[in-house]
From TrEMBL:
Stretch list, region Disordered: 32-53
TPR repeat residue intervals: 174-207
Pfam families hit by this protein: TPR_16 (PF13432)
Protein keywords: TPR repeat
Biased composition, class Pro residues, residue ranges: 32-44
Name of the molecule in the record: Tetratricopeptide repeat protein
Record bears the keyword Nucleus: no
Keyword rRNA-binding part of the UniProt annotation: no
Length: 382
């Protein structure tokens, strides 16, 4: 399960943590350098639906479009070939929605490869919009064109009827119920927004902590329009959804949330209070991270030690200390830090997750008996 957190500008009133604090924490818990990252898509990804029976030429055109036209890994030559093939199929079979939708998406993604001032950029987008609009005007019994067209509207008022039609045709659409709730709330229809968001929570699988933050951002909006009851129900649902996340991630999620969203729920409030020490009172940890960036390793070690003495709960303190000792070639000290954390952590799942992330040199410096015991407890190969 991914554990990335993106702090978006729209959450200004929701978030209570300085951006610098989160940036420092994220750096401590970040994957090793060289881990590949995915660039943001240039255009919305296509809808997913069961394919209809297609002739071979249509299948080939769609295959080429899927391979060469996505915003990530776009290949102009391959995408142009897909467009030519799809255009030919569309001329002979204009009612084939799968072909039309693939062609529209290929046009749309291709437009991003044109100069912003180029006339062809606007023409490609108009072709895509024209395809979506034609399918919508025909009132096709397929949710995809309504959804795709909704993504390209300028305001919520224009999106609203398209989103309603999308969920009417596909009630389990993974995103449309959420967007419908946003549009309904913007239009002042709070009860409808509450209902639509509840449907979103029911049908959309939880993916990662970004989903949790999105849910809580919507809960904050509900609280702001006088529906604390609905906001509290969303927060309660989030509390259950994030149980599979690492403790540090759960702590960062709740650290950023207005307590009013959950203080009326005793069980959730207790969970949050138990979590917060794992990512608060971290001034010395932040100082240690800054000293490490400056190359002042010995001073960083002392600051991290002060953090452990002041508040020993944040995992980042031990992660940083282990790394700093390894930088100095002091594997025995790194192992000592790791063992202390592992022994003091009463959560078996967190203990195993931490053990899996230890540097190989740290593990080699630990006693063989302890390593064998941890491997058995964590069901890892000997």
């Amino acid at each position: 399960m991914r554990t990335s957190l993106c702090l978006r500008g729209m959450w200004g009133t929701l978030l209570a943590v300085p951006v610098m604090v989160w940036a420092q924490w994220a750096q401590l818990m970040a994957p090793p350098p060289g881990t590949p990252s995915q660039p943001p898509p240039a255009a919305p990804t296509p809808s997913v639906a069961a394919p209809a029976a297609l002739p071979e030429s249509a299948k080939e055109g769609i295959r080429l479009a899927q391979q060469h036209c996505p915003s990530d890994g776009f290949d102009k030559e391959g995408c142009d070939k897909a467009i030519r093939l799809l255009q030919e199929v569309a001329r002979t079979d204009p009612d084939n929605a799968d072909v039309q939708l693939a062609l529209a998406q290929a046009y749309w993604n291709s437009s991003y490869r044109e100069s912003p001032q180029a006339r062809t950029r606007g023409e490609l987008r108009q072709r895509a919009l024209g395809i979506y609009q034609k399918l919508v005007d025909r009132d096709v019994k397929d949710a995809r064109p309504y959804w795709e067209l909704s993504l390209r509207q300028k305001n919520e008022t224009q999106r609203l009827p398209l989103l309603k039609r999308t969920v009417a045709l596909n009630p389990k659409h993974p995103q449309a119920n959420k967007d419908l709730a946003q549009a309904e709330l913007a239009e002042g229809n709070v009860d409808a927004a509450v209902s639509s968001y509840q449907k979103h929570l029911e049908v959309s699988p939880y993916r990662d902590s970004q989903d949790a933050m999105d849910h809580l951002a919507f809960a904050k909006r509900l609280e702001g329009v006088g529906r604390p009851d609905a906001a509290e129900r969303v927060a309660e649902r989030v509390s259950g959804l994030v149980e599979g996340e690492r403790r540090a991630t759960r702590c960062e999620i709740w650290r950023s949330v207005d307590p009013k969203l959950y203080q009326g729920n005793t069980q959730v409030a207790q969970r949050v209070r138990a979590l917060l020490p794992y990512c608060t009172r971290t001034e010395d940890l932040e100082r240690a991270a800054e000293l490490e960036r400056q190359g002042r390793v010995d001073e960083a070690i002392e600051a991290a030690k002060r953090q452990v003495a002041e508040n020993p709960k944040p995992e980042g303190s031990y992660v940083l200390l282990e790394r700093l000792y390894q930088r100095k070639g002091q594997s025995a000290q790194a192992a000592e830090v790791a063992v202390r954390q592992l022994e003091e952590d009463g959560d078996a799942h967190e203990r195993c997750e931490r053990f899996r992330t230890l540097a190989p040199a740290t593990v080699r410096a630990m006693s063989k008996e302890r390593v064998r015991a941890l491997r058995r407890a964590c069901r890892m190969p000997e």
